[in-house]
Design goal:
It contains 13 helices and 5 strands. By secondary structure, it is α/β, with parallel strands linked by helices. Helix 8 packs across helix 11, helix 8 runs parallel beside helix 12 and helix 12 runs antiparallel to helix 13. The protein is elongated and about 100 Å long. The relative contact order is 0.09.
Length: 374
């Protein structure tokens, strides 16, 4: 072992057992993993106690890191037997005076858990109340727009419609196409065993038109557009633009929430239909390659396999998904505090809750309209 490596040696003097420290006990040496592992084992063998003495007189170098290590190993108490130089004693006393003891661990009982649960429920009810107020304000703003459509924020609606709908078409087309390919290949493996190749049109048509098309489009829009809406409004809070709007008497719901809700309500059915068409194209190509089901037969059998009511239901679901995503994103954007940490937390919550809300709404539609389209 290198003489400069920090280590300790045990020896006996009469009835007193001593741990003599040698080498350099500094940050450079203690930062080496191999030296630290060896020293940790040696320290564990020299447990602090009245029968254990400590001799630091042979140490070549001792800085505050080494002193802090020893002080913590001693349990933040002076050992009964200690040999040091004056400088070492001063350093140890400084470390001892600046070290703060660990706070005692608080025992959490059932009452504490109950209080935490109550706080969570109160926070949840506050968000629910804010969402209900936002829905009511949206209805009032829509009535105001219908009453005087010429003074509506149509430029904002058109801009959001392009940003939320048109720019989302490439990613939704790619995801929808690949989902259609995957579904067709997986179903072909099962249908071929029973000689039911023709039923792939029915399965793909119902699953994509009624469920997966609107659901995939809504999830992609929730992650892409919902986060953007929350970030936009959150940055306005950080830059105090929302406060400026309030001072000038500009209604935040009419200028911020309603244009985004209307834009998503219009864009989501279009995005849903686009995603469904791309998924059907992918499934059609995969069915032709895997099962020999020609595209001509696929297109001919599709109208008879999928009732038109499924399309109407998918469009209604898409409108609901779009309004829900817009309201949730705007809610979390308005809840952002004027700091970047709150902005990041609000954006994350917006995406997670939007996707969860979309899945919950889809389940409600599936249960409520289970007899429609079959």
């Amino acid at each position: 072992m290198d003489d400069t490596a920090p280590h300790l040696q045990q020896h006996q003097e009469g009835t007193q057992r001593w741990a003599q420290l040698r080498g350099r006990w500094g940050a450079a040496e203690l930062g080496q993993r191999s030296l630290w592992r060896d020293l940790r084992r040696q320290l564990d063998g020299a447990a602090p106690g009245k029968e254990q003495g400590w001799d630091l007189s042979e140490v070549q170098w001792l800085d505050h890191v080494g002193a802090q290590l020893l002080w913590d190993h001693w349990g933040q108490q002076w050992p009964a037997q200690l040999r040091t130089t004056d400088l070492q004693r001063q350093m140890l006393e400084r470390v001892a005076s600046l070290t703060m003891g660990c706070p005692p661990e608080t025992q959490v009982n059932w009452w504490g858990w109950l209080i935490q649960l109550g706080l969570v429920l109160l926070g949840f009810m506050a968000h629910v109340r804010s969402m209900v107020e936002m829905v009511g304000q949206l209805l009032l703003d829509v009535l105001r727009l219908i009453k005087n459509p010429l003074r509506g924020p149509w430029r904002d609606v058109s801009g959001h419609l392009y940003a939320m709908g048109a720019t989302a078409l490439p990613i939704t087309a790619l995801v929808g196409f690949l989902i259609g390919v995957v579904l067709a290949y997986l179903m072909s493996l099962q249908l071929r065993q029973f000689g039911a190749d023709a039923f792939i049109v029915n399965i793909l048509g119902i699953s994509l038109v009624r469920e997966l098309g609107p659901l995939l489009g809504a999830i992609l829009v929730a992650g892409r557009t919902g986060s953007a809406i929350t970030a936009q409004i959150g940055v306005m809070r950080v830059n105090e633009e929302l406060d400026a709007m309030q001072v000038m008497g500009i209604a935040q719901g009419y200028r911020l929430v309603m244009p985004r809700a209307l834009a998503l309500a219009l864009a989501m059915p279009l995005v849903s239909m686009w995603t469904t068409v791309c998924a059907l194209v992918g499934g059609m190509m995969a069915a032709d390659a895997a099962m020999g089901v020609s595209p001509a037969y696929f297109l001919q059998a599709m109208p008879g396999a999928v009732d038109i009511a499924n399309l109407y239901l998918a469009l209604a679901k898409s409108v609901t998904f779009g309004v829900a995503i817009a309201l949730i994103a705007c809610h979390w954007g308005l809840e952002v505090e004027p700091n970047t940490q709150s902005l990041g937390r609000g954006t994350t919550s917006s995406v997670v809750i939007s996707i969860t809300a979309v899945i919950v709404l889809d389940a409600i539609f599936a249960i409520a309209f289970r007899k429609v389209g079959f």
